[in-house]
């Protein structure tokens, strides 16, 4: 038995029963004689509508012999078992007259040897909507009153004060109820009964346990903010005291990501990488992925089409070798997400052998690699527009992606510089007049070696699908 109060009560009952069993027979006979003699004594109570002045338990104004209606009111008042509760100093546990499917126990009463009882939580629902939970309450059938243990209330940091004819009890600075003196017993007005855990959760959420005005109106008006509440309640003083658990679970959002990368001081100092795919359908050459490598310093974008994810490391090494040779700068840091194509021992060993730092963004946080994510979005959007305008089949997405990257590198990034990424990377001004509409019809001159007669057409019908050789041919 884990509850010390129940244990002490049980020990007291055992000791009382043992003492009763060992009483001598003479005492039992005396008790019988006293009981027999008491039946023959003369009653000196109030009767025949007359009050006996010798009786000090009540006054003439409250005498039932003279005022029988007061007796009826008293009996009717005491017969209420659910709507009223009593605060008792002799009760070691909270007791209510109802059953519940919870832990079983036994309660010893003065009018019976033992009564079955159950142990669970009970609620007092007050008229103002506040709810008090009584833990470890005993539900005893047959009780005509609800008894609340004063010792249990004291354990809850209760403050008891007397106000005229009432006694006010404040528990945990949140629950307040008043008691009145009824036949020398403190009586609490309210409803009390056994509840399940589900019902307790429902009641405690629908009835505010806090006296804060902000808490009350915040719950009533759909968890609106304090500024909006104050605008419609100008006469109410609202003070936000605690964090609302419901708001944290229902409205919380991430803090906006700001620029957190250290600015690179030269090309290839920091490179961002991201893989896109698998893409359906595959290109005409059977490629389903493309990797985007973005130079942080210049914004230059390099796109490489891949057959599978395992080609990622080879594409990174080709990028490193080519652009280090072209710019005479060394690649120092690579930033990627946590995908398996980037997080593997092979790539890690290669990067370490070249002295390249590898930073990986946390899971579900693409903002840490936002430069590559934004580059992918720009390229995919531009490619989609090109395919729609040209009316080409989706299998040509690879050519559209490469054309979009080459075009973007020749356009300045206004948020960074008035110069294009190509100019910052290679110190070369792009020739904008060289560009043409993707997918437009063109005529390609047929070489003389391909002509079978002098009257053959000297050109082929074709479609422009991109640029190559450093923007020197189509």
Write a short abstract of this structure:
This protein is α+β, with helices and mostly antiparallel strands. The protein is built from 13 helices and 18 strands. It folds into 4 domains: 1-33; 58-200, Beta Barrel (Cathepsin D, subunit A, domain 1); 211-239, no CATH class; 270-432, Nucleotidyltransferase, domain 5, CATH 3.30.420.
What attributes does this structure have?
474 residues; alpha+beta; Cathepsin D, subunit A, domain 1; six-stranded mixed sheet; five-stranded mixed sheet; 13 helices; 18 strands; 31% helix; rod-shaped
Structure description:
The protein is α+β, with helices and mostly antiparallel strands and 474 residues long. It folds into 4 domains: 1-33; 58-200, Cathepsin D, subunit A, domain 1, CATH 2.40.70; 211-239, no CATH class; 270-432, Ribonuclease H-like superfamily/Ribonuclease H (Nucleotidyltransferase, domain 5). It has 13 helices and 18 strands. The protein has helices at residues 4-21, 25-39, 68-78, 150-155, 197-206, 213-220, 226-232, 245-251, 312-327, 345-353, 370-390, 397-409, 421-426; strands at residues 84-88, 95-96, 103-109, 112-125, 131-139, 146-149, 158-163, 166-171, 175-182, 185-189, 191-194, 270-276, 289-295, 301-306, 333-336, 357-360, 441-445, 459-463. The strands form 4 sheets. The chain has a 6-stranded mixed sheet with strand order 6-1-10-9-8-7. Strands 2, 3, 4, 5 and 11 form a 5-stranded mixed sheet that branches. Strands 14-13-12-15-16 form a 5-stranded mixed sheet, sandwiched between helices. A hairpin with a 2-residue loop joins β3 (103-109) and β4 (112-125). α11 packs across α12. The chain is rod-shaped, with a radius of gyration of 44 Å. The chain starts with a helix and ends in an 11-residue tail after the last strand. Residues 28-38, 79-116 and 206-211 have low confidence and may be disordered.
